[in-house]
Amino acid sequence: MKNDLSSEIAEWLTQFVTEKRRNLIDEVLAMRTRHITVVLENIFQPHNASAVLRSADIFGIQDVNIIEDVYEYTLNPEVAMGASRWLTLHRYGQPDPMPYPGMRGTKAAAEARKALPGNTGTCLNQLKKDGYTIVATSLRPGAVSLYDLPIDRPIALCFGTEETGLSEEAHDLADTFMTIPMFGFTQSFNISVSAALTLQTLTHQLRNSDIPWQIPAEQKQEILVNWLMRSTRSGDALVRQFYRDRDLEIPEKYLPKEEPEEC
Q: Which numeric CATH code is attached to 33-213?
């Protein structure tokens, strides 16, 4: 979407939201960043993944990358508190290998997915191409303290599954390991706590630095349109009306989704 057209759509949608909502959107968007992104690899518990999304939204992170090789991400709305509506989610999942209905979410489903080629490499290599330094949260030797982690370049913070942490592939592809200093008998955090502590620390450092952390204007416009759409009951329909009124072709992403045929 070109920036000028995006601006027109945003202006069109603004008439359908309250002034209070539009002001809030502008305030939140001004604090959003893509300098830090989050990667979740095969998170099993829906409440943990949803809590990470909630923390990402709270601390101004726009993008979350979800790898679903073993476990499919499912939203826990009571924990996420609507956070996923305001984030850009990049999902790296597999075609459904389930041989029969009802298998999804079971241990057998997880085992079936393990036999498929993984998406960790696809996700992390794409982030590398996009200019991100891959940071694996890890207790392995050589891990740098959270407080000493360089943030002068864009970073992708990787968090692994609850039981075993990040995969070997994620460790191999990481540019650096990072750990949260701990001083008790227990040497581990719940993944959602780990993510919240990490994001709070790094975003605070980022916003108090001279690093250009804010989202570029053109990207902001696209996010603004999405947020305005989600702030109305019929956002997609309103955007389609915008295109029809100007005799413009409606982009496929705004067209109604076809319902799958029943077997």
A: 3.40.1280.10
- Per-residue pLDDT tens digits of the chain, which is 263 residues long: 466 888 999 999 999 999 999 999 999 999 999 999 999 998 888 888 889 999 999 999 999 999 987 767 666 555 445 788 899 999 997 545 545 445 455 666 556 555 555 789 999 999 999 999 999 999 888 899 999 999 999 999 999 987 788 999 999 999 999 999 988 887 778 899 999 999 999 999 999 999 999 999 989 999 999 999 999 988 999 999 999 999 999 988 888 876 544 44
Residue 91 β-bridge partners: 66
3-state helix/strand/coil string of 21-83:
HHHHHHHHHHCCECCEEEEEECCCCHHHHHHHHHHHHHCCECEEEEEECCCCCCCCHHHHCCH
Domain ranges of the chain: 1-32+220-263, 33-213
Give the neighbor-by-neighbor strand order of the sheet with 176-179.
88-93, 63-68, 36-41, 155-159, 133-137, 176-179, 144-145
The three-class DSSP label of residue 261 is: coil
Residue 61: alpha-carbon gap to chain centroid: 8
Residue 121 to residue 255: CA distance in whole angstroms? 32
DSSP category for residue 146:
G
